[in-house]
Every structure is written in C-alpha cells, then in structure tokens.
Design brief:
Elements (H helix, E strand, L loop, with lengths): L21 E16 L2 E10 L3 E11 L2 E10 L2 E14 L2 E15 L6 E11 L5 E10 L1
C-alpha cells in the first residue's frame, strides 16, 4: 500500500494513458547534398506540411532501378524516423523515385509514432544531387 500525503490522492500518482493521435501526414521537402559516400547521398533541408521542420535523408542507390532511404524529420516538440524503399528512374539530368515508407520511431511528442505504407516519392537533380521529396499517408503518434 502506497503512502498518501495530505492533499494527494492515489489517482495523482498513477501513470496516465494518452490516446494515440491518428492523422494524415503530408510533407514536402527540399534538400541539398551535405556529403556522399559511394552510392549514398546525405541530404539536409526543410520540410513543409503537416509537421514542418528540418529534414535529413540518407538516400542509398542500391541498383540501377532501386533506392532505399532513412528519413528523419525534426518538427517542433520531437522527431520522426522512417525507412523507405522505392523504384528509381534515371532520365537525363533528373532521376525520380517512387515507393513506400514506414514510420519506425520518434521522440518527444512523437515518441510512439508508427505508420506503414506511406507514399514516398521525389526527384534527384543529377547535376548537383539536390533532392525533392514527398511523404504522405496515415500515421499515429
């Protein structure tokens, strides 16, 4: 039996459960190359949309027609982390990619974030490796 001090109730010391918020994520990012290693482009930029903030992407060109990515978004009050896989279509000076992303974690107000099957698409300017990206779909946090 816990000790209850004057003015406190037992309910005040119990953990409080918070309901998960489900919402539609709709982000657009414009990024520039910060570094590269082999076929991995490290990109940094700004995301605008539902949870605007800084965005970082490690984009791996794994074959002539496939890319994978680790995506980190830092909105006010926390962070979101995702993993993506997409088809890759180089065509002249611009390459495009299109696939899916899963939210695999977060911090702060997004500590319990999750979601799968989010749309992940964008372009790579092959002259300077600048990237644009779109992420959209339902997620919970």
């Amino acid at each position: 039996v816990g000790v209850v001090f004057r003015g406190e109730s037992r309910a005040a010391t119990r953990p409080v459960a918070h309901a998960a918020r489900t919402f539609t994520l709709n982000e657009r990012g414009r990024l520039h190359l910060t570094s590269h290693r082999g076929f991995t482009l490290n990109e940094k930029g700004t995301a605008t949309g539902t949870i605007a903030g800084s965005i970082y992407i490690h984009l791996h060109v794994v074959s002539t027609n496939r890319v994978t990515a680790e995506v980190s978004i830092y909105p006010k009050g926390g962070s979101l982390t995702g993993r993506a896989s997409a088809s890759y279509h180089p065509a002249g000076s611009v390459a495009s990619f299109s696939g899916t992303m899963s939210i695999v974690g977060g911090s702060g107000r997004y500590a319990h974030a999750h979601g799968s099957g989010l749309s992940f698409s964008g372009t790579i300017q092959r002259t300077n490796d600048a990237v644009t990206v779109r992420v959209s779909g339902r997620m919970s946090a």
